[in-house]
Amino acid sequence: MAINIVTPKAPMAPALPPGIAPAFALVQEKFPKVGEKIAKMWGSVVLQEYLSKTIFDERGGRQGFPMPVVSALMLLHEYHSTLIPEVSSGDTWDEAK
Description:
Blueprint: H1 21-30, H2 32-41, H3 45-55, H4 67-81, H5 92-96
Helix pairs in contact: 1-2, 1-4, 3-4
């Protein structure tokens, strides 16, 4: 009797321009779980929220990321924000300005 073990495949890295790809590679190398989440959420508004919360942790008592990783996350956040539509705040007066 053979046991068939299926392991989930890691999400593929998003297609990134040459100036951005090394940032993703660094995050994926140093913090694989964060890299996996980025790959899974790429192209969604949810990723912007995740990156914001990851970069600017408000929970306190955390060590934080090394500066090169913070820079890479910020670069990914900035680039990704150009790919998704702007989210409405729901405040009509803000949109009218």
